[in-house]
Amino acid sequence: MKYAHLIKLTAFSYEHENTENVTNAFLDFFPFDLDKHKIHLKITNATGFADNTIKILEATLSKDALINEFLQNLLGKLDDGQKKEILDQAESRLDSNLDFFLRFDKELWIDGRKLELTDSGKCFHLKISIAAFPKKREVALNIVKELFSK
Questions:
Q1: Which residues of 109-141 are buried (b: 16+ CB within 10 A; e: fewer)?
Q2: Which CATH homologous superfamily contains domain 4-148?
Q3: What confidence tens digit (pLDDT) does each residue in 108-149 have?
Q4: What secondary structure letter does DSSP report for 15?
């Protein structure tokens, strides 16, 4: 079954952080080598409020096989309680474009590769564009429920 059209992972690396650690943690979200599959890791420089430098890391998956592999890997790293929390919050995590959003605590993932949902800005942002046919909210919510009930 096709769950998503697109997956986009984004993270910010602030100048007080070790960019290499953030980049390695970012890449560890993917159960495959990005270069091998010709997926570009985009790194953009931005300036923060206090004129500090921020690196924005971004990678986008659009191939069905890679999306499925990514999702299966993600599901394997979430415990039942986290999946239940995602399901309980599914309505608020889905926007009008049928994009589903999750945020994972950056420190916990960098330090111990532990996924923990967070509302904080210091996180890895995951956007899943749900493949709903027809493109209706209730169809998308059913797909999310099916995916995170596994």
A1: bbeeeebebbeeeebbbbbbbbbbeeeeeeebb
A2: Ribosomal protein L5 (3.30.1440.10)
A3: 999 999 999 999 889 999 999 999 999 999 999 999 999 999
A4: T
Q: Is the pTM of this model over 0.85?
A: yes
Q: What is the pLDDT of residue 15?
A: 84
Sheet holding 123-130, edge to edge: 42-47, 53-61, 4-14, 123-130, 99-105
- Contact between 57 and 13 under an 8 Å Cβ cutoff? The reply is yes
Cα–Cα distance measured from residue 55 to residue 98, given in angstroms and rounded to the nearest whole number: 28
Delimit the domains of the chain by residue range: 4-148
Q: Is the pLDDT of residue 16 over 90?
A: no
Would you tell me how many other CB atoms lie within 10 Å of the CB of residue 100? 24
Cβ atoms within 10 Å, residue 96: 6
At residue 31, the pLDDT reads 98
DSSP string, 55-86: EEEEEEE--HHHHHHHHHHHHHHS-HHHHHHH
